[in-house]
Inverse folding.
């Protein structure tokens, strides 16, 4: 079993971009992991498989591709992100100010709504990309889900 993890090095990043569909230069590399996980307190959560919804609209499919595409798009609307996350089964909780807590596939993250408009900045898209990668939502996993 292989997993993408954030590490340095060009070879690993090239492998991550071809195997997992992660953008080149994202800092992610493919790392081989054992197929069997030894019993322990973390074994049940580490071995859990997450899946994407079987019926995802083309709009959500294109949005996932836009989030992970390089160069980073500066034309992604916050309402579309919220819609995608809810469709994927995320819980969305408003915090103080513009902060929003998301929980998806057992991974929790805090994102910020855009200030003075509805379009996410490039840095916000980077944060969203990292959060989705940790929550195992990537274009390549979506493609694998459609085939299988």
């Amino acid at each position: 079993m292989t997993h993408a993890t954030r590490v340095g090095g060009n070879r690993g990043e090239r492998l991550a971009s071809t195997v997992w569909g992660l953008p080149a230069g994202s800092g992610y590399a493919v790392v081989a992991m054992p197929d069997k996980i030894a019993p322990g307190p973390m074994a049940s959560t580490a071995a859990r498989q997450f899946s994407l919804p079987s019926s995802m609209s083309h709009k959500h499919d294109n949005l996932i591709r836009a989030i992970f595409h390089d160069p980073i798009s500066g034309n992604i609307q916050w309402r579309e992100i919220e819609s995608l996350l809810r469709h994927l089964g995320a819980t969305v909780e408003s915090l103080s100010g513009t902060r929003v807590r998301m929980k998806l596939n057992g991974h929790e993250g805090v994102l910020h709504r855009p200030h003075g408009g509805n379009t996410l900045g490039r840095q916000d898209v980077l944060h969203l990309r990292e959060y989705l990668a940790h929550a195992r939502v990537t274009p390549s996993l979506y493609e694998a889900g459609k085939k299988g």
Residues 13 and 25 are 7 Å apart (CA to CA). Residues 1-20, 29-50 have pLDDT under 50 and may be disordered. Helices lie at 10-19, 43-46, 58-68, 78-87, 122-134, 139-147.
